[in-house]
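Worked example

This section walks through a single chain of length 360. The input is the sequence exactly as stored; nothing has been trimmed or padded.
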Amino acid sequence: MKTEEIRQALHRIPELGRKEFQTKQWILNYTENWHCQIFEPTPTAVVLYFDCHKHKTICFRCDMDGLPIEEQNHMEFRSQHMGIMHACGHDGHMAMVLSFAEWANTHREELEVNVVCLFQPSEEDNAGANDILQSGILDTLHVKEIYGMHIWPGLEEGKLFGMKGQMTATSAEVDIHIYGQSVHAANRKNGIDALWVGTDFIKRYYSFADKIKEPHLIHFGKFQAGTVRNVVAAEAVIEGTMRTFDDRVFEKMLGEMERLKRYYEKTYPIKIEYKKNAVYPGVINDSELFDKYKEKLRYFILDKPYIQSEDFGCYTREYKSLFLLLGCGDKSLLHTATFDFPMDILNVGVEAYKNIAKQK
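Given that input, the structure is written out below as tokens.
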């Protein structure tokens, strides 16, 4: 199949993180009878290993999961799964790696390295990259370097972009659950208003964040509390996201969450549960690899890092890595119901992977 056809097939069957069973089976069916070893290090992950008896092994990683978004595009290959779509380009990422792997399967004599093709679940939800790292599969296969790519709106169509050092933000999602005591509004002084505490919590945290001089993001996007208008809220739930380019600032922001939790529990007879979901470390490009492939792949240098996050950053803290952005022009933004991209750009990514695999 052509790369575009692979993308279309995968776009039809998007699945949420750690539930990519149909996607996994499609990949397994497609690679059946190839000259490679196949591993399944987690329930929905697929790893293809091409052992060319070389002294070094490198990995090409792509992500598999879709998003809980109802697609509004009307092309022939639109999502067949209600309420789920590939709104972040992961179908394209898989298509590029799978198309490259198909080439590697029949061009082993051109490979200067052993090749691992990693189809990773759940990039969007709780850092599926950590599942892969914890499985130990990359160490078992003696991987030394990891490469990846992301389709990116707003960058020139069909061009590759990157930068040395940290290219994306470190991020975490936070959930704050406040437990008060419900009473009728007429007796509110006898209750503990979780809604009021939640409101004050947000206000105090934003005031703290406003004093941080370094680039950062903190946003509470969801706040639920109460049941009816004339009853003091017994519970409140706040959900937020935080991002920064400096790990020390990141730890400072998390520390303030803990400090506020202790303050309210000491000041009022309430209980607060604070949960930090998986941290997505910022993607850090290895300087040596960046320089090595700059002329060969002809990528352009970004002016500044992006506030977005990517769990590829988990790999960059463990292995020498190179992560590039593949421009798709002025299209709909990522994570929107109308996201799409011109499919001819996928060939740029496939050729980049081939060039990397042919270099010692």
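What to look for: The chain has a mean pLDDT of 97.
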